[in-house]
Write a structure and sequence with these properties.
It contains eight helices and 19 strands. The protein is α/β, with parallel strands linked by helices. It has two domains: about 200 residues, FAD/NAD(P)-binding domain; about 110 residues, 3-Layer(bba) Sandwich (FAD/NAD(P)-binding domain), CATH 3.50.50. Strands 1, 2, 3, 4, 5, 6 and 19 form a seven-stranded mixed sheet that branches.
């Protein structure tokens, strides 16, 4: 992927027209929505801050036809495909969103303004790592989070699970099918209930309640976790439990409802990604913190179908009104003689 693949390509100011749809975020979900809407001949503007959540990972997995593909190359492919059907992508961060009479207005960090009939927020999340020296430096390589994304690559290796909560120990159960050598480090999670401990141990999962003080590496390769007593527990890969933080400022500014869930408060959406704010959708991790790449792409597609369906329904309703008005006018005194 080159810088040219992701460079801005607007031939006119983004304020030059009232867009059908403005999409904030140019990751998998946002680009999926943009592709379908642009192919439906809707005028689409994507504003992308170029900060996809998975940019730290060299490869993504479990994505049909793209298993092992670079997530940044996937975004670059999406840019080219959206632009090929006349979608407009501009590299900018959105700092302000507000409702206007005919839709929404957004303001970028460069001071540019754009208006549109509908708004899709695909800003995703950022991961806050546990405060362990060396952990962030290995993020996306020796330190990962998702068993479905990286469990197969860890098969038959020494897997460490750095649990930040008792509920997070479920990840150790998920990883047991990939390896017979799974150690759950539980100091961050606190005391493990006796029943949970016995079940984990019965499945052959080792529990270690010593605090992890740093990640040990050999060059760029993780080799172990140093513990509070100075010993080093050998591991080949660590599955951590980062805290997801929603990048939902555009949705907060518009007053979108939120619902408490296992990841904390999150924007409330329906099956199509509709929020409580009429005309606003949240897709990908903005609407579902657990969305993997294929789920994010699907959520963008669902929102696009719903929005285009609304546009068609509006056009049909307007045509129906004109037909009804014309029919009502036939035979009236005002109509005679014209």
């Amino acid at each position: 992927m080159t810088n040219d693949d992701l460079s801005s390509a607007a031939s006119a100011p983004i304020s030059a027209e009232h867009w059908d749809v403005i999409i904030i975020g140019g990751g998998t979900a946002g680009l999926s929505a943009a592709l379908i809407l642009a192919r439906a001949r809707r005028r689409v503007l994507v504003l992308d801050a170029q900060q996809p959540r998975n940019r730290f990972a060299p490869h993504m997995h479990g994505v049909l036809s793209r298993d092992g593909y670079s997530p940044l190359d996937l975004v670059a492919d999406g840019y080219r495909e959206v632009r090929a059907v006349d979608g407009v992508i501009v590299n900018a961060s959105v700092t302000e969103t507000r409702v206007i009479d005919d839709g929404f207005e957004v303001v970028t960090d460069g001071g540019d303004r754009a208006t549109g009939r509908r708004l899709i927020v695909a800003t995703g999340i950022r991961d806050v790592m546990p405060d362990v020296p060396g952990l962030a430096e290995q993020w996306g390589r020796g330190v990962v989070a998702c068993p479905y994304c990286d469990g197969y690559e860890a098969r038959d290796r020494a897997i460490g699970v750095l649990a930040s909560s008792v509920a997070g120990l479920h990840k150790a159960h998920m990883l047991r099918s990939y390896s017979s050598t799974v150690t759950a480090f539980t100091a961050l999670a606190g005391p493990v209930p006796e029943t949970d401990r016995l079940i984990l141990e019965e499945r052959g999962i080792v529990l270690d309640d010593r605090a992890v003080t740093r990640v040990v590496t050999d060059g760029d390769t993780i080799t172990g976790l140093e513990l509070a007593d100075g010993t080093v527990a050998p591991v080949d890969v660590v599955f951590a439990e980062p805290s997801p933080v929603a990048l939902d400022e555009p949705l907060r500014q518009l007053g979108a409802d939120r619902t408490d869930g296992s990841f904390g408060p999150w924007t409330t959406v329906d099956a199509f990604g509709r929020t409580s704010v009429t005309g606003v959708w949240a897709v990908g991790n903005a609407g579902n913190p657990g969305a993997l790449v294929p789920i994010a792409a699907g959520s963008g597609a669902m929102a696009a179908l719903a929005i285009n369906g609304e546009f068609i329904a509006e056009d049909v309703a307007a045509a129906t009104e004109r037909v009804a008005a014309a029919s009502a006018g036939v035979g009236t005194p005002a109509a005679v003689g014209h």
